[in-house]
Amino acid sequence: MADQEFHGQIGRTYNESEPWWPEETRAPEDAPNVLMIVLDDVGFGQLGCYGGLIDTPNIDRLAENGLQYNNFHTTAICSPTRSCLMTGRNHHSNGMAGITEITTGFPGYDGHIPHENGFLPEMLGEQGYSTHALGKWHLSPVEANSAAGPYDEWPLGRGFERFYGFLGADSDQYTPPLIYDNHQVEPPATPEEGYHFTEDIAARAIEFMTDAKQVNPDKPLFKYFCPGACHAPHQVPQEWADKYEGEFDMGWDEAREQILERQKEMGVVPENTDLSPQNEDVREWDSLSEDEHRLYSRMMEVFAGFLEHTDHQIEKLLDFLDELGELDDTLVMLVSDNGASPEGGPTGSLNENRFFNNIEENVEDNLDAIDDLGGPEYYNHYPWGWTWAGNTPFRRWKRETYRGGASDPMVVHWPNGIDAEGEMRDQFVHAIDLVPTILESIGIEAPDEIKGYSQSPIEGTSFAYSFDDPDAPEQHTTQYFEMLATRAIYHDGWRAVHPWPLDEPISAEDLSASSLEDSGWELYHVAEDFSEAHDVSDEHPEKLLELIQLWWSEAGKHNVLPLDSRGVARLAEPRPQPGKPRDRYVYHPSEQHVPENAAAKVLNRDHSITADLSIPASGAEGVLIAHGARSGGYSLFIEDGRLHYVHNYVGVEEYEVVADERVPEGDVSVSMELETTGEPDAQNGKGTPATVRLYYGDEQVGEGDLLTTIPISISIVAGLSCGRDAVNAVSDEYRDRSPFAFTGDIDRVTVDVSGEPFVHHEAEMDRILARE
């Protein structure tokens, strides 16, 4: 403490001195708790209180005792929306034009949220709040997500005092890659013992609240609760899915009709709302086979159970706050981060990793798994017909700037601060508006400086004016949208939309800005046409031109330029990587896994793995190195005294090579060499074929062929581990003994990747966007 800050008196002795303590920072008098709940990939028409066909009684009770907004908007994709929710600035102003995996070297696109754009927990922490984050993060650059850091963009680096969840885009619900504060931990139980991630973070949220409140009950909380639900994989205990047996046999076309009717009855949408036109990518339900009906209905039942199960975990938080007597004095804001997700494609998927690797699935094979959907064996996702229904009454879905991608549910509950109950609000609201609304509700200003960083202006507009005045004129009157070169602009009840010229953004070829212009803008008078059902660009060309010009003006203000329409070419953009480029990676036994983006890249290239070991006279067994999970990967391990190499081809088949001889005792080097024997066909789900050779020292002790290998993505959830296979075992050979830790001593494991890799940029772009 500097001398000038001390307000006591210092004499020669204690008796001549006066002690002084600085006052504890306290929140404003009667400041409420704040609970922000962010659902993942939940569409406008999926919650019960928004006319959906899924029971969400606890979210519904928030709506019944609070407010619903039917004109709330997001960026149409996860990380960008979450950056808006945390900072009150637009996603390009945050450097978060897209997900952190497709960054480019421009201010709006680099994936680094500047410290000049302070996070809400940083603001509230300085005002005497406890700050906790639970669940999905996905706001730090992928190159920073390993145990090597840097940690300044992890949750604890951006104002949260506690964190429990995962850093990336999605997670297995049964075996998540957990981070506790700033370090990796294993789940506290196994799937067989009943573990589920959403249940775990609900329990941890209550634990964090208990820890804080029992010591300082007057200190308010900011709780950021972000379950991975309902992002794929759709995983939930079977009884939750079974509740919905037969409930979706009518199919997605009829579901849209039913949802719209319910929305009108409930006042969620205006009476004159029309369903948006038929989505050309979605097959009509009546054209499908009986087997398809059966499979796709079950996939939707699993999703429904997943969402209701999530609602039940939210109930636990609400009930705990109620037991504390603080629920009515907690400002609850519940939103979804974007529209429902189309990543299941037209047929749905049993294993997301197959989708990411361009491996087609068929109804016959998937029907064999129908009784186990939602369990730990599968990473299932529903067909995009259900996505479209989930976004009723809008067009399209996540990743696109139609309302189906960018219009989402929002529920606000604060009985002590809002007199209105069970009412709908139709003022335009965007994700950037939550921060200024929370600050106004608490009664504090956005700080001018945080941790020495001068703060940029908040770009959102508080919507607290609408809390008790349903007819208040909207104050957020202009908002641009841009996502993967799809664009839109809202202004005073009108919305212009510039769709991507191809049907599916993830498979688009490089496109110039001029070709985007040529594809044409559309115009919707959303004040009268809620669902964007009727393009009126021909009737109002002057209005359309006005909005196009306004879009470019807003783009210039918020780092949207240069407009990047290159599609897959973004992947070839040089970007920072952890450490210097290298051909050799050295690993040591650790309980910390290395995330996929930071691990040695072994796919589609010659490579070798060498483990320097000490084998006791009694022998040793266990995993030397493993990368991946049940859904795909590789593992080098010793079992029954022999060296084994397994390549798990995306959960479809395990190719195994076993040594002919036992590993000798004492100090020994064992190795695997993989030699590619052909070209990959990534577009059709095939990596390079290869020959694998096993060695003890210089002596070859085994050889075998891999007919094909993983072409693009090793795993959607698991990284690389040395000395164990802890997250979700790669191989069935030892799954029942996981983590199958090595019982001898490992000095080091060296992965040599000096072989030239083959990279298919378009297929890799498909994988990254699908994960989002």
Automatic annotation (TrEMBL):
<dbReference type="GO" id="GO:0046872">
    <property type="term" value="F:metal ion binding"/>
</dbReference>
<feature type="region of interest" description="Disordered">
    <location>
        <begin position="1"/>
        <end position="27"/>
    </location>
</feature>
<dbReference type="InterPro" id="IPR017850">
    <property type="entry name" value="Alkaline_phosphatase_core_sf"/>
</dbReference>
<dbReference type="InterPro" id="IPR024607">
    <property type="entry name" value="Sulfatase_CS"/>
</dbReference>
<feature type="domain" description="Sulfatase N-terminal">
    <location>
        <begin position="32"/>
        <end position="443"/>
    </location>
</feature>
<dbReference type="InterPro" id="IPR000917">
    <property type="entry name" value="Sulfatase_N"/>
</dbReference>
<dbReference type="Pfam" id="PF00884">
    <property type="entry name" value="Sulfatase"/>
</dbReference>
<keyword id="KW-0378">Hydrolase</keyword>
<dbReference type="GO" id="GO:0016787">
    <property type="term" value="F:hydrolase activity"/>
</dbReference>
<keyword id="KW-0479">Metal-binding</keyword>
<keyword id="KW-0106">Calcium</keyword>
<dbReference type="InterPro" id="IPR050738">
    <property type="entry name" value="Sulfatase"/>
</dbReference>
<protein>
    <submittedName>
        <fullName>Sulfatase</fullName>
    </submittedName>
</protein>
<comment type="similarity">
    <text>Belongs to the sulfatase family.</text>
</comment>
